[in-house]
Amino acid sequence: MHGIMEEIILNLANGALENLNYGWIVLFMAIESSFIPFPSEVVMIPAAYMAAETGEMSYPMIILMGTIGAMIGALINYGISYFLGRPIVYGFANSRFGHMCLIDADKVQQAEKFFDKHGAVSTLIGRMIPAIRQLISIPAGLAKMNLGSFVLFTCLGAAVWNLILTLIGYLCHTVMPKEELIEIITHYSHIIGYTAIALVVGVLGFLIYKGAKKN
Known about the structure:
- The protein has helices at 2-19, 22-33, 41-54, 59-84, 86-93, 96-100, 105-118, 122-125, 137-142, 147-175, 178-214.
- By secondary structure, it is an all-alpha fold.
């Protein structure tokens, strides 16, 4: 299964660098944020790389379209969980199709524990944590979280995540050819994800330090 997913990711990444536009960004990011496993690194990094290469797309629009797509996918998970409830969600997670989507009851339970521990703000910080980000909308729906708060926190978290990935894509354009970019994204998407998290933590730590020093 892992080999098949890697091949799919490779093909999508190759196609992304040749044909990606705002519409595809929205679609792919909606898929990424729903119950179908699909790394956002394969979309946002090539989009930013292509923007630097051709100038046909702008960085703010890439981030905006990626955030809209992420919100659509998150709302799908939220709505399914909100209206269908825990038995059906866990039934799907334990089904063959759920396993094909790389989802199981343990992963859903992990997302629920994260939500229970951190509350509503988990839909913000959870958007930047691998293995949690794609599923955090499920416990939010199961807990019937306020829709306005869910949309706000999800949009903020998705925007920050997309901003970091766009920055990585821009920086990649300055140091490597696109063929090398495809190989790195395909084989090291999880490492890229953790690098993005480290950047977020670093920026937040710097801002907190500057604020404390000023006071």
